[in-house]
């Protein structure tokens, strides 16, 4: 698939539920910056991607639980 200018700074990936999501490089950079300041250790962009995925998964589950109630 051809990348557009809009998609140039994004990585598109499929998660375990088959949904695709765009992970913006600026979001990853900000995540690295935030968590490095909080943890005092160096993080990679892959670490940041996993953090973003875990946090969004947590809130997705909370939303599902709220729907069930």
| Structural domain tally | 1
* Overall 3D form: elongated
Strand content bin: 5-15%
Rg over alpha carbons = 14 Å
Structural class: alpha+beta
Give the strand tally.
Answer: 2
Helix content: 55-70%
Q: How far apart lie the N and C ends?
A: 41 Å
Strand neighbour order, sheet with most strands: 1-2
Quickly describe the structure.
This protein is α+β, with helices and mostly antiparallel strands and 69 residues long. The chain has 2 helices and 2 strands; from the N terminus they run E-E-H-H.
Account of the 3D structure:
- This protein has one domain.
- It is 57% helix and 14% strand.
- It is built from 2 helices and 2 strands; from the N terminus they run E-E-H-H.
- The chain has a two-stranded antiparallel sheet.
- The radius of gyration is 14 Å and the shape is elongated.
Indicate the topology.
Elements: E1 10-14, E2 20-24, H1 25-39, H2 45-68
Antiparallel strand pairs: 1-2
Helix pairs in contact: 1-2
Question: Tags for this entry?
Answer:
single chain; 69 residues; alpha+beta; two-stranded antiparallel sheet; 2 helices; 14% strand
């Amino acid at each position: 698939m051809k990348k557009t200018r809009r998609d140039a700074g994004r990585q598109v990936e499929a998660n375990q539920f088959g949904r695709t999501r765009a992970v913006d490089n600026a979001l990853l950079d900000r995540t690295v910056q935030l968590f490095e300041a909080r943890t005092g250790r160096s993080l990679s962009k892959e670490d940041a991607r996993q953090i973003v995925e875990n946090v969004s998964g947590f809130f997705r589950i909370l939303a599902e639980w709220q729907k069930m109630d």
